[in-house]
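User: Hi! I'm working on a homework problem where we have to compare a predicted structure to a textbook description. Could you give me the structure for the chain below?
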Amino acid sequence: MRSGLELAIVSRALNDRAVLAEPLAATVAPAELPASPGARPAGVLCLLYEDAQRRPRVVLTKRGRDLPTHAGEVAFPGGRLVDGEDPLGAALREASEEIALNPATAKVVAQLTPLSTGLSTALVHCFVATFPGPDGGGTGGPSGRALMARDGEVEEIFCPALDELLDDGVFAEELWPVSADGALVERAVPFFDLASYGAVVWGATGRMLYELLTRVTRSLATGP
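Assistant: Happy to help. Predicted structure tokens:
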């Protein structure tokens, strides 16, 4: 299944109604905690494009190491809402500011399940969007604008193929104790070890990738 992925297949799979009706709990433990009453909404973009070999790739960023929260972590472009914004508007604005995305080239094809984060008490809305993608040299692509790490929040941009995320040995899951409603429970924390990129994707971003890949592989496994 992972060798035959194409962007059109991924887009269709993300909107498979049968898969959307299934629970997407983690494999061994409750996946998410209830959102904190004080959680602030945020919007992020899971940007997908096809490379020259028609392999779907996802845009990920490494956050700056001097940031007060989530320093050095891998994340989707995005951030908190400002006055008058909705989550999608915030995601597009932040992607323009952080990686120089031309928002007009992004086509939203799906939305993942909103999830809560513990450290920064955010309720994150993730939008999956396709775009033409940067060219191989990073100097401008079919979109007419190169992706560039900027604004001080982003240290690096890298774009693994979805089939790399599905490689044997890349995904792992750990159980971490957390407090929920006054009780100590174990929360499943996903990890994607991308050694060739010198990066480990985990936490909220890992959870969103887990949902995206689970939806796609479930849809392909069940067939039309």
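For your comparison, note the following. Residues 26-31, 136-144 have pLDDT under 50 and may be disordered. The radius of gyration is 17 Å. Good luck with the assignment!
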